[in-house]
Design a protein that fits this description.
This protein has 22 helices and no strands. Helix 7 packs antiparallel against helix 8 (145-158), helix 7 packs across helix 20 (403-411) and helix 8 crosses helix 21 (418-441). 47% of the residues are buried. It has one domain (3-453). 75% of the residues lie in helices and 0% in strands. The protein is mainly α.
Length: 455
């Protein structure tokens, strides 16, 4: 083999090493791409004129993509909900509604993770936000540290697979699936996962009451007043999320239009809560701009990296290697999902979606699961997308390298240790593995609702 045949492997190895240096991912991606494109020029295997194709590729990744106009407005909506202070009120209101259940605070935290799905664009931001909101309250109420931090980590990752989480926009764009079907595809698996989490929290609190002590009932507080207070805190955010989801799923508005409604609704909620001051608006705008800049710079940098990588047949080498394993369809699917699961230990879903999935997607889409999924060949990509989302979410929580574990620990009070975090999430990872297995075995959990939307 000649030097040019080793360039794709050298690019991957260099990228892996540089990611652990702490340099921004976007700079690493673009830098490695330009470095090896230059090496190709030096050895006469990459024409100089090809450098002029890079700007065209960058424009091609922007032009016509719904991600670039839609994602900023969804992130704006999520940040506006957070800055409005509604999240803390929602948590306390939810706990009041379920206060008669054992482990009521963990139950409320799980429901909050579902309701705050719009702000769950980035795993780290979602987990850290919920940790800051809920952990001090849970610990003050006497909840065991491992139980508390585990529920926070689980709730923070739960939102990324539920609509209108922005990961679904990326999967839709990458796999060429309409937004309506992919939005509803994760509803049943995601809500099933949340329900099983809740069942675990309640059962754990019943078996070991010291894990989640019941709070004494205040005779001065009527349950009716608690419900009214909770309703006031939940009504506007729930209506806003329902409007965004309903308009997309029902085909009333495009994703861009629905996201614009969400952003405007976020501003309205801020105003109603007296948070449209210069300080809070500045925080919302800066946080949105910073997050979007990071996301989009990674996407553009991935285009710079993938251009020389694909030019030197890197994608073909990966496909040839995997196909050379001579696995059947199930073996190949589990292998690809295993690769995604392991990568989720170390890097966020954005990097996996824009770097790794384009290389693995041709293999996945070449597998024949039409008979297993049923309902037609067009449902298979939806089932695969749900599997990818669930596996990524599971890897973010799996010790010892789960991505969300370190964010939960970093945002937790000093008395919460990393060992507490590990102990808290192990049972929840087992629950997640159960849901992944159920969706693998029973595709209807993922494709039943999309099949209704696509009729």
């Amino acid at each position: 083999m000649e030097l040019v045949d080793y360039i794709p492997a050298m690019m991957v190895a260099t990228l892996a090493v540089m990611l652990f240096t702490g340099y921004p991912v976007a700079f690493v991606l673009a830098g490695v791409g330009v470095l090896f494109a230059g090496l190709g020029v030096l050895i006469g295997e990459f024409p100089m004129v090809a450098f002029f194709n890079i700007p065209a590729r960058l424009w091609g990744s922007i032009n016509g993509s719904m991600i670039f106009p839609t994602v900023p407005m969804l992130i704006f909506m999520g940040v506006a909900l957070e800055k409005s202070g509604v999240a803390q009120e929602m948590l306390l209101g939810l706990q009041g509604m379920v206060r008669r259940l054992p482990g009521s605070m963990a139950v409320a935290m799980t429901v909050l993770g579902v309701l705050l799905a719009p702000s769950a664009g980035l795993v780290g931001a979602s987990v850290a936000t919920l940790a800051l909101i809920g952990l001090p309250t849970m610990l003050a109420q006497g909840y065991r540290r491992s139980y508390s931090v585990g529920s926070v980590a689980a709730a923070g990752t739960l939102g990324i697979i539920l609509p209108p989480g922005i990961m679904l926009f990326f999967l839709s764009d990458l796999m060429r699936i309409s937004m309506g079907p992919i939005f509803v595809s994760t509803l049943v698996p995601g809500l099933l996962l949340a329900l099983l989490f809740i069942v675990y929290y309640i059962a754990r609190a019943i078996v070991d009451p010291a894990t989640a002590p019941r709070q004494p009932r205040d005779p001065k507080v009527r349950y009716r007043d608690v419900l009214l207070s909770a309703a006031r805190g939940l009504t506007l955010p729930v209506l806003l999320i329902a409007a965004v989801l309903g308009s997309i799923i029902g085909g009333i508005a495009t994703p861009v239009q629905s996201a614009a409604v969400g952003a405007a609704g976020g501003l309205v909620i801020m105003h109603l809560r007296g948070r449209t001051t210069r300080k809070y608006l500045h925080e919302v705008i800066v946080t949105t701009a910073t997050t979007c800049s990071m996301v989009f710079l990674i996407i553009l940098a991935a285009s710079v990296f993938s251009y020389p990588f694909n030019y030197f047949e890197g994608g073909g080498q990966i496909r040839d290697f995997l196909l050379g394993l001579a696995l059947d369809d199930w073996g190949m699917l589990l292998t690809v999902l295993g690769i995604i699961f392991i990568l989720g230990f170390f890097i966020d879903w954005i990097e996996i979606t824009v770097i790794v999935l384009p290389l693995l997607l041709p293999i996945l889409l070449g597998l024949d699961f039409t008979d297993h999924v049923g309902g037609g060949k067009n449902l298979v990509p939806i089932w695969l997308a749900v599997q990818i989302a669930l596996v990524l979410q599971s890897s973010f929580m799996t010790p010892p390298f789960g991505f969300s574990l370190f964010f939960a620990k970093g945002a937790a009070p000093p008395e919460v240790t990393l060992a507490d975090t590990y102990r808290g999430v192990v049972p929840l990872v087992m629950v997640q593995a159960m849901v992944v297995g159920l969706v693998l075995a029973f595709p209807g959990l993922a494709v039943w609702l999309p099949s209704l939307v696509m009729k």
